[in-house]
Amino acid sequence: MRKMFSLLMLTTIVTAATPARADETLYQSLIRRVVRAHMPEIRTCYNEGLARKPELAGKLTVDFEIGTDGHVLSSKVKDSTLADATVEGCVAATVQGWLFVRPDEGTVKVSYPFEFAPG
């Protein structure tokens, strides 16, 4: 039997050495839309961790960079309280494969926190 869990997502966007743009909020919502579309992949990573550790919970922040073509150039775990390297690596690798809307200018650096809790 699979455990249910809650997943809370928050977003912080940091653009690469450019001043804040009027369309930054629009791009943030586009990033959230892509992340939400890929939530089943994130859930799979977490469910695999829950199968090993039924009480697995914590916050995981992934830093990634969206290239000029919309592909993720790099993805890595910034911070984690999960204490499960397998889930952390799975989430970072999953994000690496995502495709976003092309940024208007340059690349975009994103720090995206996920909070996991069995429920």
How do you describe this structure in short?
This protein has 119 residues and is an alpha+beta fold.
Secondary-structure blueprint:
Blueprint: E1 5-9, E2 12-15, H1 24-37, H2 39-52, E3 58-66, E4 72-80, H3 85-96, E5 108-118
Antiparallel strand pairs: 1-5, 2-5, 3-4, 3-5
Helix pairs in contact: 2-3
Instruction: Give the rounded overall mean pLDDT.
Output: 84
Largest sheet, described in full? 5 strands, antiparallel
Q: What is the number of domains?
A: 1
The whole-angstrom Rg is 15 Å
- Are there runs of 5+ residues with pLDDT below 50, and where? 1-20
Question: Which range best describes the helical content: under 10%, 10-25%, 25-40%, 40-55%, 55-70% or over 70%?
Answer: 25-40%
Query: Based on CA inertia axes, which overall geometry fits?
Result: elongated
Count of DSSP-assigned helices: 3
String of helices and strands: EEHHEEHE
- List how many beta strands DSSP finds: 5
Oligomer category: single chain
Pairing-aware structural class of the strands and helices?
alpha+beta
Report the span from N to C terminus: 13 Å
Beta content comes to 25-35%
